[in-house]
Amino acid sequence: MAIEGMNHFTVLTSDLEKCKAFYIGVLGLTEGYRPPFLFPGAWLYSGDQAILHIIAGRSLPAESQGIIDHMAFTASNLQLVVDKLNFYNIAFKLHRLIEQQTWQLFCHDPDGAKVELDFAASEPEPKLDIAREGFNK
Asked: Where is the VOC domain (predicted)?
């Protein structure tokens, strides 16, 4: 057996609409088909692939479910993403890794899951609102 790729991540949320607003409105995923499960949630897509499953209607665990630190997505249009994060007052950290040919932007979803967005290093350096850059968690 060999792993052939990543299928999806699942996040738990205390507020389904707020969580969807972040991943759809801010990060640009789209909501698509989800089987008729007996619990609330959403499947979010990049193109025709459901890459993020959201589960609502459960209590968030008091203790960690494991050791996953963050989820990472390949992204484009760094300035647009920075502008959206600033518009929604979402704190972030941005690093340019020239040797890796990438920009790394880190932020948190509404329930605290850490999200990494990777952009090509060739994208221009974005104009930042210095007062908002940095984690507030």
From this structure: 5-120
